[in-house]
Every structure is written in C-alpha cells, then in structure tokens.
From TrEMBL:
Keyword Isomerase in record: no
Gene3D superfamilies found in the cross-reference section: Ribosomal protein L17 (3.90.1030.10)
Name this protein carries in UniProt: 50S ribosomal protein L17, chloroplastic
InterPro entries hit by this protein: Ribosomal_bL17, Ribosomal_bL17_sf
Ribonucleoprotein listed as a keyword: yes
GO terms for biological process, alphabetical: translation
UniProt keyword terms in alphabetical order: Ribonucleoprotein, Ribosomal protein
UniProt record similarity statement: Belongs to the bacterial ribosomal protein bL17 family.
Residue ranges of coiled coil: none
Length: 112
C-alpha cells in the first residue's frame, strides 16, 4: 500500500516541489495546482500548522527544516497558530476549479 503519491517525479524533485508549495501556501494562503499535488500538499501543510500550534523549540526546528523563509516560519508560529488554536485538524480546504486546457489535468485551489 502506497502512503503517498509519487507525482511522476524522482524523490528529490518531489520533496523539493512539495516544500516550496507548502511554503507558498503558508505565505499566500491560496495556490492553484493539480488535484493530486493539492492532496499531497494538504497532508504536509496540516502537519506544519500542527507544529506551529505546538510552539516548542523542537517543533520550530522541525518546521524550519521543511518550510522555506523566515517570514513563513514567523507566520506559522504566530498568526496561524493563533488562528487555529481551538481547531483539532482540517486546517486546509481543497476547491476543485477547472480542467487545464493543455493536458486536461483537473485543477484545484488549496487554501487556509
């Protein structure tokens, strides 16, 4: 049983792409991507918000090893931690939007 989607990329490229997408999601609070990528980003983004809510030094180091940018770290541990302090999960929403013209891939917004 596969625990994650491979997204047709080598491991290093996939991890790099997902780190960037999670960081951009935290920074901009809404990105458009394919449905498969959005479902993977949702898993990781929810985990980063959980680390932000934890607020410990260990959680900050774990999050810093994944997200990119000091502004993203600050937003995770201040604004988002406060916004979701009473919520137990489900920090992201997936909204299917359209079919991409070039390759007919289903697209979706993922947002906080």
């Amino acid at each position: 049983m596969t625990k994650f989607r491979k997204l047709g990329r080598p491991a290093a490229h996939r991890v790099s792409m997902l780190k960037t997408m999670v960081s951009q999601l935290v920074k901009h609070e809404r990105i458009e991507t394919t449905v498969a990528k959005a479902k993977e980003v949702r898993r990781l983004a929810d985990r980063m918000v959980q680390l932000g809510k934890d607020g410990t030094l260990a959680a900050a180091r774990n999050a810093a090893s994944f997200v990119r940018g000091d502004d993203v770290m600050h937003k995770l541990f201040t604004e988002l931690a406060y916004r979701y302090k009473n919520r137990e999960g489900g920090y992201t929403r997936l909204l299917r939007t359209r079919i991409r013209i070039g390759d007919a891939a289903p697209m979706a917004y993922i947002e906080r």
